[in-house]
Amino acid sequence: MDVALIPPLKSPAAVPVLPGWALPRGRVSDPAEAAFLAGAALNCLDNLVRMDPPWAGAWRARLALGCAAAAVHQAGRAEDEAALRDAWFLRPPDGDPGPAGRLLAAWRRLAERTPNVEETALESICGLLGIGWNSQLAALPEEIDRQFAKGRPAPLAAAAILRAVDAVAPNAAVLGWWLADQMLARSLRWPFAVPLLMVEAHSAVFRRAGGAGRLRPADDGFEAALCLAVAQGAARVCRVAAEIAPRAARLLAVAPKLRAKGAGEAIALLLDDDAVPGTLATAKLSRWGARRLFERLEALGAVRELTGRSAFRLYGL
Fold first, then answer.
1. Rounded to whole angstroms, how far apart are CA atoms 167 and 149?
2. How many CB atoms lie within 10 A of CB 120?
3. Which residue, of 86, 121, 122, 260, is most buried by count of CB atoms within 10 Å of its CB?
4. Which DSSP category does 215 fall into?
């Protein structure tokens, strides 16, 4: 087995979990309380990011899938997480995953890159999101640099970017949420962005008082609402990590029992991505060998089959 490809085991018990007292309960109207909750949640998430566990790639990829599904819903499309996963992993090599799959590509790119946004990269992301490029959007990287230089708390810097996008492209809210995650990561000096806020975009925290519509970035109270969204989102993604960590530990624990050539490469892929096709083929692992390997891992409780199908199967933590 390719032992060199398998990351060192880290205890799942070390995964930070946000305490119950730090979770938003009901409607919070006090900006100071909202900021406190966001700070507590981001401290928990910051500890998790800096742990850099061997399954961090799979964690971020799964969060990207959730954010993409929320973006697809906002765009009025019907694809859910399962359909997006199929569009991405079952497409031909270098094939077009379709409009919904391109939204997933944007959030996967968010999860894979350092939190710095250059004009060329932003133009590419706008293409994936279906947003027409113009000179006002091209100026957003400079605005991100200005907000970073101010040294404001991360949620407030993210709110400022959402406001900037809303001012120049009111119909490009999805880009604002994508950039807000980048701003959070850059403000906190994380090596990678964590797909977080798009799932919270339609949260109840953005409802206006009295239920009269939803807050927009320029509205009073938006910053406090975003702090609550950050708190909710950070708690959610820490729970996802707590679900993945013991599965990853089980996978690494059974790794020495595997005799298939190329098993180490398959395990590394499972730890680094949301899913791996059951038809995986590498230089050392045939499709037949991969099928046998995944079936054995499933029997050992080390992976899950994610589709429920008898064919075109996908496996993941």
1. 21
2. 10
3. 122
4. -
**Distance, CA of 33 to CA of 110 (rounded, Å):** 30
Determine how many CB atoms are found less than 10 A away from the CB of residue 218.
11
Residue 11: closest CA among 53, 69, 45, 39: 53
Phi and psi angles of residue 61, each rounded to the nearest 5 degrees, phi first: -65, -35
- Reported as half-sphere exposure (CB side, CA atoms, 13 A), residue 228 has a value of 22
| Helices within 75-170 (DSSP H only) | 81-89, 98-112, 119-129, 135-138, 140-150, 154-168
What is the Cα–Cα distance from 211 to 221, expressed in whole angstroms?
A: 14
Helix (H) or strand (E) holding 277: strand 276-277
Alpha carbon distance 134, 95 (integer Å):
27
| Cβ density class 22-58: b for 16+ within 10 Å, e for less | bebeeebeeeeebbebbbbbbebbbebbeeebbbbbb
Task: Quote the tokens at residue 252.
Answer: 């690494």
Contact yes or no for 187/155 (Cβ under 8 A): no
Task: Say what the pTM is.
Answer: 0.92
- Give the type of residue at 265: E
pLDDT tens, 226-285? 999 999 999 999 999 999 999 999 999 998 888 767 788 899 999 999 999 998 888 788
Token pair 């990561």 in the structure block, residue: 185
CA distance 197 to 206: 12
Query: In the 8-state DSSP scheme, what is residue 94?
Result: T
Spatial separation of the C-alpha atoms in residues 287 and 259, rounded to whole Å: 16
Tell me how crowded residue 81 is: count the other CB atoms within 10 A of its CB. Answer: 17
Contact (Cβ atoms closer than 8 angstroms) between residue 234 and residue 154: no
